Amino acid sequence: xxxxxxxxxxxxxxxxxxxxxxxxxxxxxxxxxxxxxxxxxxxxxxxxxxxxxxxxxxxxxxxxxxxxxxxxxxxxxxxxxxxxxxxxxxxxxxxxxxxxxxxxxxxxxxxxxxxxxxxxxxxxxxxxxxxxxxxxxxxxxxxxxxxxxxxxxxxxxxxxxxxxxxxxxxxxxxxxxxxxxxxxxxxxxxxxxxxxxxxxxxxxxxxxxxxxxxxxxxxxxxxxxxxxxxxxxxxxxxxxxxxxxxxxxxxxxxxxxxxxxxxxxxxxxxxxxxxxxxxxxxxxxxxxxxxxxxxxxxxxxxxxxxxxxxxxxxxxxxxxxxxxxxxxxxxxxxxxxxxxxxxxxxxxxxxxxxxxxxxxxxxxxxxxxxxxxxxxxxxxxxxxxxxxxxxxxxxxxxxxxxxxxxxxxxxxxxx
Length: 415
Hints:
The protein has helices at residues 55-58, 174-177, 200-214, 258-266, 277-289, 317-326, 341-348, 367-383, 392-396; strands at residues 3-11, 14-22, 28-32, 37-42, 66-69, 74-79, 85-89, 95-99, 102-107, 112-115, 130-133, 139-143, 148-150, 153-155, 159-163, 171-172, 185-193, 224-231, 246-250, 299-307, 329-336, 354-357. The protein is elongated. A hairpin with a 4-residue loop joins strand 3 and strand 4. It has two domains: 3-181 and 396-401, Methylamine Dehydrogenase, Chain H; 185-385, Rossmann fold, CATH 3.40.50. The strands form five sheets. It has an eight-stranded mixed beta sheet, with no helix packed on it. A six-stranded mixed beta sheet has the order 19-18-17-20-21-22, sandwiched between helices. Strands 11-12-15-16 form a four-stranded antiparallel beta sheet. It is of the alpha+beta class.
């Protein structure tokens, strides 16, 4: 049992004691009055069905995680892990059940409750984790992790809804309506080690990892441009743009459709030779410079280098890495297995941008961290020249985790 909260509310000449228990598995509410003792639980119904779901499906919904009682004696209860779950495809053919969450209205003279949440809830919203209700029944309920889809990226600033008629209708509260998407441009190139030691099977894992990272950035327009370079051997006395094993597999911005980009990644074949990392960094500079917005201060430039071993040209590595950074390109280095950590630090120029995993199957573990780091960097860079996005660091902190109005005064006027 995590905590127990007691509240006493007067109703005429009677007092009703509401006790809300939240356990580690399933929350529940108990009404203790002078006349009876009730176990109050939600009547959970599927939106497309009229039948009540089974007790098994109701488990772990955290019914009672948040709650408020108004003057009419109606209890509003949050259930952020509400069992009406939607199957979502992730990572190939595997599926994951993601809770939408919901809130319920419970009458003091009945033992069951009914859902009153907004109709546009999505998997992963966890709606009902935070709520406030005034004495007259005006409600402000927040979804702390609701994802906002913006041109160029996906991010989760949270989302708050307001209802003035006890949950019959909902609308975004004014502060939520004022949230605008960040305006930034991002040129992002993956630089992949194509040496023999990687192997064909692991190279497929690298491509799957790269697609997972790229999926976080919407490329259905020109805001975010993605490119891929594979490197292995380097021939002396041959220009960089003519090297047969330092190849631009996907030119920066070549595909503006995400599905087309993924298909192009699948077609990349492993070189299977050596590891000239320093020269590969110099080659990638040419790809960045091919963009007409290379010198634009509003365009963030990011390079993600992945390698599984020691470079064949270490004597040039520090010079090449410094050259890349001097052009305003920020490098993230990813090392697998026996990759040399000192070299990874030289490449990134900052230990915070170094990621290491023990084997290729563990690459999935760093996808989310890398996505977040790149997005935060891009937003931070954009904020230097655009005052309208200075607040996005706060929004990325998921503002919906706590409502910003107390239950005593929700005074926001609707526009």
